[in-house]
Design a protein that fits this description.
Chain lengths: ~110, ~110
């Protein structure tokens, strides 16, 4: 089946640093979503992307829908301790209702 | 802010027993979904439901699984005869359309012993 490769798998960063993570696939997606998941909780939507090339910000978060429609990235600027968690990308293929989730990036912020 | 509500938050069941996981989607949403997440792994699609019928399902969603919208507010996932490998977090989600973002519930942790 379709796979979304998300990298890095995990990262430790210092508070105040910027963070980048991305998702890539061999498939073409119509929609990209980025979610954050805290332990024991459900995923919480951060950013939704609907068009190739689209660049969208939500506070300190910026995400882009890759021009080839096969990738997306998420940047977090000036990280803070509460940014700790697992970040998932999710892509929706054309003609389907489901989203395919990436493998997740576990972020740890050192104060 | 509207929420998707799931109950119970944690359920422990014996292997072979039936379980029903319950969800109350956001009231004006039309599309409903179940996903699961085995501990430490990614979120996996199980099924989508629209207009009182299954619109799409994954290979995980076999004959042991069923979904129902018994009234205007609840959306349930039934596992007929649970197996150890069914232990996971089960997330319900809903959306206003199918090519838009989902809102997820907080999940039900199912433990099969």
């Amino acid at each position: 089946g379709q796979q979304l490769n998300q990298s890095p798998q995990s990262m430790f960063i210092q508070e105040g640093e910027d963070v980048s993570m991305n998702c890539t696939s061999s498939s073409i997606f119509n929609t990209w979503l980025w979610y954050k998941q805290d332990p024991g909780e459900g995923p919480v939507l951060l950013i939704a992307l609907y068009k190739a090339g689209e660049l969208t910000s939500n506070g300190r978060l910026t995400a882009q829908f890759g021009i080839t429609r096969k990738d997306s990235f998420l940047n977090i600027s000036a990280s803070i301790p509460s940014d700790v968690g697992i970040y998932f990308c999710a892509g929706q293929l054309g003609g389907t209702y489901k989203y395919i989730f990436g493998t997740g990036t576990r972020l740890k912020v050192l104060a | 802010e509207p929420e998707v509500t799931q109950t119970p938050s944690h359920q422990v069941t014996q292997m072979g027993q039936e379980v029903i996981l319950r969800c109350v989607p956001i009231s004006n949403h039309l599309y409903f979904y179940w996903y699961r997440q085995i501990l430490g792994q990614k979120v996996e699609f199980l099924v989508s439901f629209y207009n009182n019928e299954i619109s799409e399902k994954s290979e995980i969603f076999d004959d042991q699984f069923s979904v129902e919208r018994p009234d205007g507010s609840n959306f349930t996932l039934k596992i007929r005869s649970t197996k150890l490998e069914d232990s996971a977090m089960y997330f319900c989600a809903s959306s206003v359309g199918y090519r838009v973002e989902y809102t997820f519930g907080s999940g039900t942790r199912l433990t099969v012993v």
